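Bench notes, afternoon.
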Amino acid sequence: MKCIKCVGEWIPTTLGPVTLDRCDLCGGIWFDGKELSRIIAHVRAGGAPPSVERTTPHDKDAAACPRCGTELECQPLLSIDDVHYDKCPQGHGVWLDGGELNKITADPKAAAEADFFTRR
């Protein structure tokens, strides 16, 4: 499947307890349903934090949900200035740019905020 932010391809990537769709170029990750919450819970329970960096810049800021085609809503993460998540307004999932998952799981306040606001 093509990346929603660049020309890369999504590859299945296992992080902790889930297998996610990760772009092979920009390092962005699509989380279906409650997959982000499952990774945050895994790290809180002492599991190894994920390490996914951006490898190349993505081409665009706005994107559509790969499940329903609705434009994703960009939401700032209040506890970390340079991190935001793109959320499907229909509840199908969440997009994080490459490197943002590392920042969220490394900060307990950010992890709690992301878990609360992206859980559906």
